[in-house]
Amino acid sequence: MKKTALVFAAVVAAILALSGIGVGTSQAAPSVSLGGGSGILVLKGGNSAAACTVTTVGRPTAGPNRGKLIALTAGHCGKPGQRVLSERAQNRGPIGTITQSYSDIDLAIIELDAAKVRPVSTVGGVTIKRISNKPVSFPTVICKEGRTTGHTCGVTWFSDGAAHFSQMCVIEGDSGSPVVVGNTLVGMVNAYYFVSCIGPETGTNMGTITKRLNRAGYNNFRPV
């Protein structure tokens, strides 16, 4: 049920960026804006890349990785060691690398190049100010911002300590999208069942994600 899209142009853009073609050396290029809802491309090798969406950008405030700038997305978007581009700023080349990917909860952690990335709290129709580890419940209306379908909302049908199921519209490429109630991040999009944009949508709740981040050394994660 977990789906990603292949984007061939990303590889050409990455090669140009890495070789320095078309990039001036007299001054640094402006930082790439990135936040929950931003589109990313994960380089797969050869002529392919996976198009996904960032859940949020922030920093752990404790543990061995304290202070590192990281982004979260869906685990099926990539594997450790694969490089990540901003979909809207492909000419800047890789802005980060996947360091961890967990298939059991479908979560990937991306360590970002802080010299290239400018974290933002608002992307499209979603603003993230805080995290809630409490599962959402029926009939709470949740919303998301995805690189494919943009800003959509829907009622929560069911939620437990690990995952939620809702009526939000999602399509391939929306994987990793932030799921919010107001400006509070409560989860991420991972998949849809049956029919795209009809659903239901399902994803991992932030309580599950936060626990895994703590175990991985990205303790007390906070969105920037």
TrEMBL record:
Signal peptide: 1-28
UniProt keyword annotation of Protease present: yes
A molecular function (GO) term: peptidase activity
Record's keyword annotation contains Signal: yes
Keywords, in A-Z order: Hydrolase, Protease, Signal
Example GO BP: proteolysis
The protein's name: Serine protease
